[in-house]
Amino acid sequence: MNEHAKPNLAKAVSLSEAADALEERMMHELGERIATKSTLFRLADGEVTMDSGPGLKAANPDKYFLMGADPRLPKMPDKPTLIDFFHNRFASLNHLLQSATHALKGGHSEKVVLACLLHDIGVASFIRADHGYWGAQMIEPYVNEEVSWAVRTHQALRFFPDPSVGYEYPEMYIKYFGADYKPEPYIVAEYERARNHKYYMTSRLICVNDIYSFDPNAKVDLNDFVDIIGRNFRQPKEGLGFDSSPSAHMWRTLMWPTRFL
Fold it and tell me: How far apart, in whole angstroms, are the C-alpha atoms of residue 91 and residue 73?
């Protein structure tokens, strides 16, 4: 019994030591600052809790809380652009670029191409749940309303087929969610509202180009869309996050995700 237990104990100690070493390295990179994790971060780990300011300070009496850029993350310029966020804060670009490339090759308008390029930035930068709504809110001050409406509404439309454009319920969703999954009532209501909207087809085309854009070996390039972004995304001269728009705080949060306040 003990002979079988020893390897497990050794492995547990090894993992614990590795975790301690990683934490030590990360704290060294932070220097004299304390980085904090948000309540949302804790919820994702199944914990309804938050870091206590007094508790963290008591554990680190000689350090101050981080109130700016986290040195562990790629440095952002003083006046960041959308391209800067693509390069330094979006965790994955391939799917977004594949979607936009399909739309571009399909001869769609620049609004549709931009909507495809931005449709999942909520996932790539922020959160998976209700990502269409989050993504639309992030970009709404900077794009044509058709683009932000399409990004928001694709959250619902992707769950409903449209034979007129050859869009079927994705097989991937059956694998991911099970054959018995049914969208929540608010998603069904969003779909019903969207069906007769003037921008319905723009959002539907996000779905159409979305389902063919999961090839990990696809060769895509953000540079192919720089001009389209320049013509269709209103880059604030102060930089994203510093222009006092209704979503500026969201871009600042991506820049400084471990600020104490």
Answer: 12
